[in-house]
Amino acid sequence: MDVGEERNSMKIAIQGEPGSFSHEAALKLMPDAEILPCALSAEVFAALDSGLADAAAIPIENSLAGSVLEHFDLLLHHDVKVVRETLIRIRHNLIAVAGAKIGEIDRVYSHAVALGQCRRFLAEHPAMKAVAFYDTAGSVKQLVSTRDTKAAAIASERAAAYYGAEILARGIEDDAENYTRFFLVRRSAEAETDPAANKMSVAFTLEHKPGSLVAALSALSEMGTNLTAIESRPVKGKPWEYIFYVDCKIDSSVEGTRALEGLSAHCGMVKELGRYREALGAGNTGAA
Q1: Which one of 182, 183, 204, 244 is the catalytic residue?
Q2: What is the mean pLDDT of the chain?
Q3: For residue range 14-67, what is the model confidence (pLDDT) as tens digits?
């Protein structure tokens, strides 16, 4: 079965409530999927491990806030593979219940990252106190349950429609170039590599000798592999040791295998996290 032709009845786990940006990403990746909301990211991977979910849609990087490091760690420690990626344009809206007036709002709930991306709007409305909440869509869900006309939420248009709330102000984010990259993740045993994959994600640790990182990255460079991202995370229980996560462009599956072999010569551990097609949009040139 081709990666782009997954069965339509897939159940996709997401972190957050229905109406969240993860919900939007899951439906973009698989329009007819059944969504399984989870409170925590660890629960998303547990659902995938147990077979409760067929796949997971997880945010991995925001163009303004940076990488979601917890998700890199979860990808490393679970027997899963990334099979697709997509980009979602993040548009924030001020959302309230029917009858609320923007001039009377004194509290605004949302995820801390979303609040941070709407600082200019909040500064222009000093009467609105920003209150961090666990989820953007969850803040709308709470709002509708309380029917509080003095409170509002910052979330997506989908969240407003899903919970029957009203949008008081659209596009209130500070920066229009606000995108989040999402991965579609499957259990390794069921993850089929897209024949047109032109991107690969890898995790590795280094040998304990000077110049190991330079040697590892040089091995990729010598093969002409284009490194597009690199992150480091501390190894738990081993102070000053790190796991490195990299994304790189590949011309073919053969080049991807050669890149892994090149890294292995300089690394204590190498794990391929997935091969997939680069998502189209926000400056990328690949196919979604």
Answers
A1: 182
A2: 90
A3: 999 999 999 999 999 999 999 999 999 999 999 999 999 999 999 999 998 899
Distance CA 53, CA 145 (A): 28
CA distance 102 to 120: 16
CA–CA separation, 145 and 153 (whole Å)? 13
Q: Please give the torsion angle defined by the CA atoms of residues 50, 86, 114 and 159, in that order, rounded to the nearest 10 degrees.
A: -70
Q: What is the pLDDT of residues 99-131, one digit of tens each?
A: 999 999 999 999 999 999 999 999 999 999 999
228 is catalytic: no
- What structural domains and CATH numbers belong to the chain? 8-89+178-190 (3.40.190.10), 93-169 (3.40.190.10), 199-279 (3.30.70.260)
* Average pLDDT estimate for 211-222: 84
- Give me the residue label for tokens 């596009």: 171
User: Between these two residues, 7 and 87, which has the higher pLDDT value?
Assistant: 87
Please tell me which residue in 180, 183, 225, 244 is annotated as part of the active site.
Answer: 180
Write out the two tokens for 56: 């997971």
Q: Which residues of 77-112 are buried (b: 16+ CB within 10 A; e: fewer)?
A: ebebbbbbbbbbebbbbbbbbeebeeeebeebbbbe
Q: 177 burial class (0-12, 13-18, 19+ CB within 10 angstroms)?
A: exposed
Tell me if the pTM is above 0.70: yes
Is 182 a catalytic site residue?
yes
Place of tokens 């050669």: 258
